[in-house]
């Protein structure tokens, strides 16, 4: 990569993650849910983060807000926000204003996260007050505009309770709440969970259009490679709390290099052809207690594993136009 391209990408970078490690206490000591993660989130780009359940995707996303719930904690590393510094050292009012104002988060199953005892508009006003918004009337007007923009009747939705809205409508309301304070970074954690196919397609199209209009930096956390393939520019593959492959989404999905990424691709059922060609991964993903403390986290399930894989922890290194953590493949 040329120096000019690197400089251009650096100017587009809104968040830099460096050596990020998130740990939780266990009977055998603190164990990492995310380990030594390096990542950049760039303006105008959609980054997909994929992996099986328990791979650390949602923990990584929460760490970008310094919102890891106790007893978890950010044990090492930094999350550097352009023009603001390392948020892992922030707390209180400064951190609260960063959440929502700079980064909007749509939580997993956010269609169930609204307060059932308050109308949507009242919850929106609570959000505005908590962030010191002076023009609450203007906030309501902007929320209505956003609702109308994504196919909702803004007046009706803001006057509704949670139970009066469908799952797809509530998911879109979550997107409105994430964007109404003009966030630069949008994080969506499993945005299509529990939605029917038509609602999924509608939500994904809304995400694509608003991302382009606002030139956001968007992160989509998903176990669904189809969603990521449709929307993302780059994809980060996680396993056992570690990034194992990172690169252009078309390149990674078309020619996966890390054995785990390749196994994920083989496990996807095909609409055409022999359905028996889809093969599930052998074994089970590790949890905090069973994850190895050294060596490659995928070694126990990897068909290419060698003795050295169980001893030496591989680093992400450039190979075939992407970053992978597998020295066996790189030979």
Give helix % range: 25-40%
> What is the tally of helical segments?
12
Number of strands: 12
Shape: globular
Protein structure class: alpha/beta
Q: What is the N-to-C succession of helices and strands?
A: HEEEHEEHEHHHHEHEHEEHHEEH
Distance between the termini: 22 Å
Over all CA atoms, what is the radius of gyration? 20 Å
Strand content: 15-25%
Sheet with the most strands: spatial strand order: 6-7-8-3-9-10-12-11
Largest pleated sheet: 8 strands, mixed
Mean pLDDT: 89
Low-confidence stretches: none
Would you kindly provide a written description of the structure presented here, covering whatever features stand out?
The chain is of the alpha/beta class and 331 residues long. Helices cover 34% and strands 24% of the residues. The strands form two sheets. Strands 6-7-8-3-9-10-12-11 form an eight-stranded mixed sheet, sandwiched between helices. It has a four-stranded antiparallel sheet with strand order 2-1-4-5. Strand 7 (185-189), helix 8 and strand 8 (217-222) form a beta-alpha-beta unit. Helix 4 (120-130) packs across helix 5 (136-149) and helix 7 packs parallel to helix 8. The chain is globular, with a radius of gyration of 20 Å. 41% of the residues are buried.
